What does this fold into?
Amino acid sequence: MEHRLLNAQIRKETTKGELRSLRVSGKIPGVMYGGGKDATRLFLDAVEFKKTSHGLSESTIFNLSLDGKISEVFIKEHQRDVLSGHIIHVDFLELVSGRAIHARVPIKLVGSSIGVRNGGILENPAHEIEVECDPRYLPEHISVDIANLEANHSIHVRDLPVLEHVRVLSSRDLVVALVKFAKAELVVEAAPVAAAATPATPAAGAAAAPATAAEKEKK
It folds into this structure.
């Protein structure tokens, strides 16, 4: 399988000021580790990195050309600026054939669920699962067919397609997709406003109100 090529250069800058200058000039500081070697500090062109990594997952393998030497890597972690959202640092893990790695593989839901067509709502609680395997067998994503997923049913990790040479580390009971019906909103009608109250009629046997002084004089 041919991997995308990403160019990088070794860097010596380590202070905050030096790293800030790199970023201002359109570069992204990073580090590559793994393969039983010391970590290597590097920097990338921000525009090239954005173009090369667009639409790919953290389990996608790259060919990283570091000062002319090519290594197979994947993105282990990246940091973003909280205000701009721009990537400000990237960690690459160098891959060694025959040495197992841990990685997160995205879940890709495929098809139109029968439950959704019948009025249900599709949910995707787990967007990725953790796996362990030789880098040669690391999938970029796992496709899950949801065409036969009915309402009030779910798909768990244990239901996923078997991946040869790949050990799934996530719980077998983890839900990756489900369809449920939306609860109908209860409409509560306001009670009609009661008519203006009429003077209450004394109940039978109730004592009459005492006569006023004017009434006594008339008598």
Remarks:
- The CA atoms of residues 4 and 70 lie 11 Å apart.
